[in-house]
Design a protein that fits this description.
The chain is α+β, with helices and mostly antiparallel strands. It has one helix and eleven strands, in the order E-E-E-H-E-E-E-E-E-E-E-E. The strands form four sheets. Strands 1-2-3 form a three-stranded antiparallel sheet, with no helix packed on it. A hairpin with an 8-residue loop joins strand 8 (about 90) and strand 9 (about 100-105). It is elongated. The structure holds zinc ion. Zinc ion binds near residues 8 and 10.
Length: about 120
Amino acid sequence: MTENPPPCPRCSCAYTYEMNALVVCPECGHEWVPAEGAADAGAVGAVAEKVVRDSVGNVLQDGDSVVVVKALKVKGSSSGIKAGTKVRGIRLVDGVDGHDIDCRIDGFGAMQLKSSVVKKS
Ligand SMILES: [Zn+2]
């Protein structure tokens, strides 16, 4: 959208170009969000303050521990995640498809969950 992308902040190369939401420098390969995006970043900050609640209405925060309240199917796993599985150190994200918790579950690795399937522990 910017007709003239800003020069590279690293090497001041002027021949930068836009790729998706990023500006890319062909000289040093630096990629960054242009100034316009800075305004958006402010908006994102506001979104980050949105309240995420668990299945019973407790407000969740980064670093909280939660318990999965219902069995979840996991792609590539025959057993899936059982109800009662503890998840430590969640991180709230604005994920795809309503997934707003980023976490790591023993035996499954990193994944995203919906806050509607967990309860703060
Ligand atoms: Zn550069």
